[in-house]
């Protein structure tokens, strides 16, 4: 099968920097991805080209680009998943991709020597960010093996753990794609009736699914939510937030996996503390 998305990770260094500048110096992964898509004028097919499981090639290679730019000192990320330009990054609107790769390879070699690790033939194996995709894929693979009704109950449990009240799985057939409903209360004062659709899916969910779901929820709920083990096309995301229509929230496979991890549902996390002294911070204090 021919590759649709032809940009390599290093082709995305400068579009990523440009996207962050457009976003005012910081942005979420989703915001950066959307900006890069517009900068490169990507087609729907290019955006939706799947790398593996629920991760698109655009998402995967942008993660590599961010990793290299971070190690090169141009961007940084917070625990909340927001990426931002560093002082050096703000002063560097454009980079030579070969220079970036050479510097990161040199840094990786030094770190391995310092830690007495054997040399790596693949610099990408040392990336903590990219290692996340491996556990996400393993988790989603386990989820996809359960039956549709069990997946609906898993979504029910997930929403309950997230604070939803009176979460029920709809037993009726021909319910317009509505698999369940619940109540979310904000600040203990405002309550919103929410209906959800659970799609144990491989590949991308299109805009037609969002439109049909909205048609089913109108007049029956205040908010709509679609959860999938797959991904959403750009058109589906646009349809979910179309002007003049009730907004629908979307949770894709990677976000679903993150929530399961955060709530420790079927996931056990072992934390290892590593303390690194930033000597340059004190030198520049």
From TrEMBL:
Q: What sequence ranges are listed for the domain Restriction system protein Mrr-like N-terminal?
A: 9-91
Q: Which InterPro entries match?
A: Mrr-like_N_dom, Restrct_endonuc-II-like, Restrct_endonuc_IV_Mrr, tRNA_endonuc-like_dom_sf, Type_IV_Methyl-Rstrct_Enzyme
Residue ranges annotated for the Restriction endonuclease type IV Mrr domain, each copy included: 144-258
Top-level taxon in the UniProt lineage: Bacteria
The record's keywords, sorted A to Z, are: Endonuclease, Hydrolase, Nuclease
- According to its UniProt record, the EC number is 3.1.21.-
In the UniProt record, does the keyword Nuclease occur?
A: yes
Q: Does the keyword Hydrolase apply?
A: yes
Positions of the region Disordered?
107-127
Top-level EC class, please?
Answer: hydrolase
The GO terms this record gives for MF are: endonuclease activity; hydrolase activity
Output this protein's name: Restriction endonuclease
The organism is: Pontibacter aydingkolensis
Per the UniProt record, the lineage of the source organism begins with:
Bacteria, Pseudomonadati, Bacteroidota, Cytophagia, Cytophagales
């Amino acid at each position: 099968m021919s590759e649709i998305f032809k940009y390599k990770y290093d082709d995305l260094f400068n579009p990523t920097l440009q996207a962050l500048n457009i976003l005012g110096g910081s942005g979420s992964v989703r915001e950066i991805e959307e900006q890069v898509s517009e900068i490169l004028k990507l087609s729907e097919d290019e955006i939706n080209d799947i790398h593996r499981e629920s991760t698109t090639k655009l998402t995967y290679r942008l993660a590599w680009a961010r990793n290299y730019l971070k190690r090169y000192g141009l961007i940084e990320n917070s625990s909340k998943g927001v990426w931002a330009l560093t002082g050096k990054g703000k002063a560097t609107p454009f980079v030579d991709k070969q220079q970036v790769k050479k510097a990161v390879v040199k840094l990786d070699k030094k770190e391995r020597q310092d830690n007495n690790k054997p040399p790596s033939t693949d610099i990408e194996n040392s990336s903590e960010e990219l290692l996340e995709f491996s556990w996400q894929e393993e988790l989603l693979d386990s989820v996809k093996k359960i039956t549709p009704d069990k997946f609906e109950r898993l979504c029910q449990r997930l929403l309950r753990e997230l604070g939803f009240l009176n979460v029920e799985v709809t037993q009726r057939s021909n319910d317009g794609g509505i698999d369940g409903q619940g109540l979310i209360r904000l600040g203990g004062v405002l309550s919103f009736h929410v209906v959800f659709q659970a799609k144990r899916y491989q590949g991308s969910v299109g805009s037609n699914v969002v439109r049909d779901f909205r048609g089913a929820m109108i007049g029956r709920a205040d908010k709509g939510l679609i959860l999938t083990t797959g991904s959403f096309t750009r058109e589906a995301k646009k349809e979910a937030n179309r002007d003049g229509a009730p907004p629908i929230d979307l949770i894709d496979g990677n976000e679903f996996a993150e929530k399961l991890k955060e709530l420790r549902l079927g996931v056990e996390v072992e934390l290892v503390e590593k303390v690194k002294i930033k000597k340059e911070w004190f030198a520049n204090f």
